Amino acid sequence: MEIFEEIKRRGHEQILFNYDRASGLKAIIAIHNTTLGPALGGCRMLPYQTEEAALEDALRLSEGMTYKAAAAGLDFGGGKTVIIGDPMKDKSEALFRALGRFIETLKGRYLTGEDVGTNEEDFVWARRETRYVVGLPPAYGGSGDTGDNTARGVIQAMRAALMHRYGSPDLQGRRIAVQGLGKVGYHVARRAIEAGARVIAADINPHVVGRVASAWGIEATDPWAVVETPCDIFAPCALGNVITERTVSALQCQVVAGSANNQLADDRLADDLAARGILYAPDFIANAGGLIQVADEIRGYHEERVRHQIDGIYDVLLEIFRKADASGRSTVAVAVDEARRRLDTIQAIHRLYGS
Ligand code: NAD
């Protein structure tokens, strides 16, 4: 990868690399855009096959955070941390305290919290070294795990898609295929069942599926078959890049709405989905619930305000679907445009009287 070319193309402000000998920490922080406020975005820990794959993930995810915050009406920018390591083997107090020191050097220009491979407990360690972490357990003054609020937003996205497609937002009797039953997918499945939907679910961890299948009457399916399951809504709630040139033609759903970041391997696949008559709820709109929660925590957490704001995802998406239909553009193109428009407007306002 030509790093500076890639940064120029995507519009990043800053990329930081940190290696800490004592703890073994290898972390990359990508700050994409701070027009609206300090960059905010979780910390992912994965055993990346290559350093390039880790950097690519940081660049793409941080860009997505800029649009997510802008579209959700937040006063934060986009950033992301990736740690190269195995969350099952490589976590330690030293590792997360070293990460905390690293983040503290940015003096609030970037704030982070849990993401795939990390959890709120990890940031209790990081918190000892920096104030700039969010999503801590309530016992440490935080708003706690973001999984359920993210799921709340995903359900709103599903309801908006059903409303747009069928004229009713009701999940009752709808068939929903959930890929991944982790911190978010678990609550998506639970909320969908509570709303009267029939849920088919898959996870690469068979214990997780077994637990919810027996407790809630969920139909379990194979992790690789779930993409091709006939259903009303396919909900990707595992990792990204699930919609590829191959899978786009295998989908047997009317709607794609889930929590995973970067569901499309390439944004152009949004046009292919539309051409197949599949309504796509852009991931960075549907999964903004967790971000809305932690952003509120920074300004003084208010649960009801957060819920209200997350429920607003329904109206935001209805508008995006309407504009996409009217313009013949994909829902992703419309959503990115709307987010960029807000960035430009706020930037212009800030220029009015200087900062
Ligand atoms: P998680 O790690 O808790 O859960 C992911 C689950 O997916 C795990 O149970 C894992 O076993 C399973 N999985 C992985 N690959 C799979 C596959 N190929 N098929 C089926 N299952 C598979 O992560 P999470 O916090 O639930 O996040 C899920 C997705 O949502 C991620 O893409 C994350 O970036 C995104 N997201 C999460 C939040 C949040 O608040 N946690 C907010 C916004 C977006």
From TrEMBL:
Main enzyme class: oxidoreductase
Cross-referenced SMART domains: ELFV_dehydrog
EC number(s) on file: 1.4.1.20
Domain Glutamate/phenylalanine/leucine/valine/L-tryptophan dehydrogenase C-terminal: 144-351
Taxonomic superkingdom: Bacteria
Stretch forming the signal peptide: none
Residues engaged in binding NAD(+): G180, L181, G182, K183, V184, G185
One MF term in the entry's GO annotations: phenylalanine dehydrogenase activity
Active site location: K80 (proton donor/acceptor)
Keyword Nucleotide-binding assigned: yes
Assigned keywords, A-Z: NAD, Nucleotide-binding, Oxidoreductase
GO BP, sorted A to Z: amino acid metabolic process
Protein family (similarity comment): Belongs to the Glu/Leu/Phe/Val dehydrogenases family.
Cited PANTHER family: LEUCINE DEHYDROGENASE, VALINE DEHYDROGENASE
Protein's recorded name: Phenylalanine dehydrogenase
Gene source species: Sulfobacillus acidophilus (strain ATCC 700253 / DSM 10332 / NAL)
